[in-house]
């Protein structure tokens, strides 16, 4: 059984993630298969819409093959770079795709799953959706276009999500514009049937079946987030949280202290730069250069050890404070790659 199934079903090009034991986390062959299908369907008149969903299990897609990335990063990084190169080409291909694309974000949608879903024209959330970019907890950063998407969220919401890895539910995804439609999971089969019957009327089909989502809890914290995460300097955010007498600020600061200071600073710069990126291609090029370096640095290897391998959830970050991460280190991480090594679109 393939880890991803790509087939033409009437007028629909179907991409179904099929790696349930890993919550459909992406590996290199999966990215390559998706890219090949998108390329084949691009000029196939029989395919009018592309639909991305998952087979059994509670996740749409939990991310990428983190253990492989760490194993590669501990050596020469070649396999990690090959994965990022293909994954980002897949992200870019979806972002620029001329035909309508639909992602069904039913269940866990994190990391690489976010990279699959957010470029799509229609993004369906359900009561099962759990959306997050939790990478700073393993010494990584919100890639797969995170610098583009998160920097365009209202206020300082993107910075909050990037640093804390906070999980959003389906209603919150709708409120922030990360999802376009909220459907009960029980109506997804009907939605797919209607899309197949009327591929020119995807929006109408989803509009008809969508229901009003519950209240979005995150909006109650919007003012706090905008005020406390106002700065692009991590030290300032720590200081603002520490000075606030509220319980939420104290809990949030405690959360940040479990994350990698280095990749929190990387994330803040990524979003600062991403807000003014001229094209998504430029964003992917920068994220590839950053990712190629971060996977070989101490914090990523240590984060994967603590969270995924040993599961002691006690990473020893180096440096272990925001002040210890110098501007010089961040500049090194963000330096452009030589042309021969740089990322290019498909």
How does this model look, in words?
- By secondary structure, the protein is an alpha/beta fold.
- The protein is built from 16 helices and ten strands.
- The strands form two sheets. A six-stranded mixed β-sheet has the order 1-2-3-5-7-10, with helices on both faces. A four-stranded mixed β-sheet has the order 4-6-8-9.
- A hairpin with a 2-residue loop joins strand 1 and strand 2.
- Helix 1 packs parallel to helix 3 (78-95) and helix 2 packs across helix 3 (78-95).
- It is globular and about 55 Å long.
What radius of gyration results from the CA coordinates? 20 Å
Low-confidence stretches: none
Question: From the structure provided, what is the oligomeric state, counting identical versus distinct chains?
Answer: single chain
Beta content: 5-15%
Distance between the termini: 27 Å
- Going across the biggest sheet, name each strand in turn: 1-2-3-5-7-10
What level of helicity do the residues show? Answer: 40-55%
Structural class: alpha/beta
> How many beta-strand runs?
10
- Element-by-element helix/strand order: EEHEEHHEEHEEHHEHEHHHHHHHHH
Mean pLDDT: 97
Provide a count of the helices: 16
Major sheet summary line: 6 strands, mixed
Morphology call: globular
């Amino acid at each position: 059984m393939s880890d991803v199934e790509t087939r033409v079903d009437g007028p629909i090009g179907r991409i179904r993630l099929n790696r349930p034991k890993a919550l459909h986390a992406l590996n290199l062959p999966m990215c390559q298969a998706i890219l090949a299908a998108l390329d084949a369907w691009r000029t196939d008149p029989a395919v009018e819409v592309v639909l991305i969903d998952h087979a059994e299990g509670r996740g749409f897609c939990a991310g990428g093959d983190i253990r492989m990335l760490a194993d590669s990063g501990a050596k020469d990084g070649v396999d990690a770079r090959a994965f990022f190169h293909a994954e980002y080409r897949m992200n870019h291909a979806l972002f620029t795709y001329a035909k309508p694309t639909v992602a069904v974000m039913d269940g866990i949608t994190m990391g690489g799953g976010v990279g699959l879903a957010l470029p799509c024209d229609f993004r369906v959330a359900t009561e099962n959706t759990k959306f997050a970019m939790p990478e700073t907890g393993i010494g990584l950063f919100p890639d797969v276009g995170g610098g583009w998407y998160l920097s365009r969220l209202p206020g300082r919401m993107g910075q909050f999500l990037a640093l804390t890895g906070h999980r959003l539910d389906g209603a919150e995804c709708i409120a922030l514009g990360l999802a376009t439609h909220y459907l009960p999971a029980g109506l997804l089969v009907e939605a797919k049937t209607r899309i197949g019957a009327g591929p020119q009327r995807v929006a109408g089909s989803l509009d008809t079946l969508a229901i009003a989502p519950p209240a979005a809890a995150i909006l109650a914290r919007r003012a706090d987030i905008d005020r406390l995460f106002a700065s692009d300097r991590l030290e300032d955010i720590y200081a603002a949280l520490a000075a606030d007498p509220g319980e939420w600020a104290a809990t949030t600061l405690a959360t940040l202290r479990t994350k990698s200071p280095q990749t929190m600073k990387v994330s803040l710069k990524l979003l600062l730069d991403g807000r003014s990126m001229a094209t998504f291609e430029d964003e992917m090029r920068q994220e590839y250069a950053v990712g190629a370096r971060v996977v070989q640095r101490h914090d990523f290897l240590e984060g994967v050890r603590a969270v995924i391998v040993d599961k002691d959830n006690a990473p020893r970050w180096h440096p272990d404070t925001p002040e210890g991460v110098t501007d010089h280190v961040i500049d090194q991480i963000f330096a452009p790659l030589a042309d021969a090594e740089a990322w290019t679109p498909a």
